Amino acid sequence: MDACTLGDLLDVVGAALRLHTAPAGQAVPVTEAVLHDGRTPLARQPGALLLAVGVPAAECGPLLRAAAEAGATGVVVRGADGPVAEAQALGVALLSVAEDAAWHHVHLLLASAIAARPADAAAADSGLGDLFALADAIATAAGGATAIEDPRQRLLAYSTVPGQPVDEDRRQGILGRQVPASAENTEQYRRLFAADRPLRLPALSEGDLPRLAMPVRAGGETLGSVWVIDSGSLAPDAEDALAQGASTAALLLLRARAARELARHRGSELLRRLLDGTAADASTAAERLGLAGPARVAAFVLDSAASVPDAERTALRLLDVVRLQCEARYGRHAGVLVDGVVYAVLPGPGERHKKLAEDIVARAGQALRVPVRAALGEVVPDAAGLADSRADADLVLRVLDAGLPVAGVDEVRSRVTLLRLAEVMGERRELSAGAWRRVLAYDAAHGTEYARTLVCWFDAGCDMAGAAKLLAVHPNTCRYRLRQLQQHAGVDLDDPDERLVLWLQLRVLAGLTGATA
Question: Does residue 489 contact residue 450 with C-beta atoms inside 8 Å?
Fold first, then answer.
């Protein structure tokens, strides 16, 4: 099982922890978070993250030296004025938390994140098994049937201790995994989430039973609540048992959330490597992501023409929308944001991929209030071809517009082919040299329309009447222009190879067409 790294930890806890320097990089392991008061001798603790309790940030130099000798990964201080240069020289990471952060809350947050593993995410999503055991423990200690909920009143776990009385509210909550909504319930939750200790709440209707409830918090964040049915036989120390249970629930909920975030982060990194073709073993990476068989890359991007005040934050919200919709369709699903583009892998042969992309574009546009465009690369037989499918999607994004916000590569094959051809020809001197430049230069110097006439003649299949119709002139005018063109620009229109090269250069490099010139 992979160890938690400093980079993993920063991804999970987000802005709660600020990195000032990491001389050994962010791939170094973090094995534990240790509360250290700076006055106690430090034993060897490889990979530990030391929390500098009682040590001012500016005075943590001795602790940094002790941490280096003990093999610790880094030191966390309170405040941002720590000795960065000294930490850099010692090879120890230096991090900080806010001045008003409580050390026990910081320790709880870091310990739960470090303990999380990607493998835990499946167990967390399948029912948070440890919470069920905790619910049973609280029910036994407090003397009443227990339920653990998230902040949205969704039931996460419930006790199964035999013989404890229950009421209809509990039965409905277990059946629907959601607390029944009512104005009375809303008021009880308002009171509960404002409390900092166990709260006794009356029954809401005839036949129901009162409750003893406690909010679950960590670092000031409300993570959920614990409810115990009071049938009149609660233990004398039920409130203490509930308070202790709520503290344990906070740790379990943080750990489950950290495991999900860590699994998602690692899935994103695997997907990123598959998409840029740097995965050491594409088949192994695909297996870890749950990808098998044919698939294609879908790319989603905010409309560049729209005014977006905070484009980076909006792009992250777009990533959330794409992940949510893909997970609803395909189950657990990796998505990744790269340079402002959200990429997702859509499994299967692809018949319904465009409909999904259109749905995501519509939902994201409504949620973000910014137009979104989506491109679909070619379906490839396995994960080894995802980098090519991503390249297709990137090209398609460049030819989309307000009139065509969603398209697959096959729908715009001619556009992307010409786009790529223009890039290749523009990069090679021998492909971009030739008579086409002389034609454009002559037009620019003399105000003539020889290039436009030539392109219309090519687009009309070298038919003089067809070219004249495109130009809205008499065929003799068109014929005269072509004679003059050959004389002044040195073009041999009798040579079919020169005609083909000249058409390609004017069409691709100059962007001229008979229809729009």
Answer: yes
DSSP state of 508: I
Query: 344 by DSSP, 3-state: which?
Result: strand
Q: In this predicted model, what pLDDT tens digit does every residue of 344-402 receive, in sequence order?
A: 999 888 778 999 999 999 999 888 889 999 999 999 998 889 999 999 999 999 999 88
427 CB contacts (<8 Å, ≥6 apart)? none
Instruction: Choose the most confident range, by mean pLDDT, from 4-18, 90-104, 275-289.
Output: 90-104
Calculate what percentage of the chain has a pLDDT beyond 90: 37
Distances (CA, A) of 415 to 303, 350, 407, 408, 409: 19, 21, 12, 12, 9
Q: How confident is the model at residue 116 (pLDDT cuts 50, 70, 90)?
A: low
The strands making up 221-229's β-sheet, listed across from edge to edge, are 155-158, 146-149, 221-229, 211-218, 199-201
Residues forming a β-bridge with 401: 404
- Rounded to whole angstroms, the Cα distance separating 319 from 398 reads 20
Place of tokens 């593993």: 117
Confidence check: pLDDT of 305 > 80 = no
Comparing 63-72, 258-267, 308-317, 323-332, the range with the smallest average pLDDT is 258-267
Global model pTM greater than 0.70: no
What per-residue confidence (pLDDT) applies to 14? 64
Task: Give whole-number Cα distances, 8 to 13, 28, 221, 289, 431, in Å.
Answer: 9, 10, 21, 18, 48
Place of tokens 């105000």: 447
Of residues 509 and 30, more confidence is placed in 30
pLDDT over threshold 80, residue 418: yes
Which of 149, 114, 102, 106 lies closest to 18 in space, CA to CA? Answer: 106
Q: Mean per-residue pLDDT for 427-433?
A: 84
Per-residue 3-state assignment (H helix, E strand, C coil) for 460-479: CCCCHHHHHHHHCCCHHHHH
Q: What is the rounded radius of gyration, in angstroms, for the C-alpha atoms of the chain?
A: 33
* Cβ contacts of 391 within 8 Å, gap of 6 or more: 377
Q: Name residues whose C-beta falls within 8 Å of residue 218's C-beta, 6 or more positions apart in sequence.
A: 105, 108, 109, 112, 250, 251, 253, 254
Number of H helices, E strands in the chain: 20, 15
Q: According to the 3-state scheme, what is the secondary structure of 235-252?
A: CCCHHHHHHHHHHHHHHH
Neighbouring-strand partners of residue 50: 34, 75
φ, ψ of residue 116 to 5 degrees: the values are -70, 145
**Residue 155 bridge partners (DSSP):** 149
Q: Residue 371, CB half-sphere, CA atoms under 13 Å: how many?
A: 13
Name the more confident of 269 and 161: 161
- In the DSSP assignment, the letter for residue 421 is H
- Reading the block at residue 180, the tokens are 């029944």
Phi, psi of 460 (to 5 degrees): -90, 10
Longest CA–CA span in the chain (Å) reads 108
Q: Count Cα atoms within 13 angstroms, Cβ side, for 173.
A: 26
**Under DSSP, is residue 230 helix (H, G, I), strand (E, B) or coil?**
coil
Please give the pLDDT value at position 126: 41
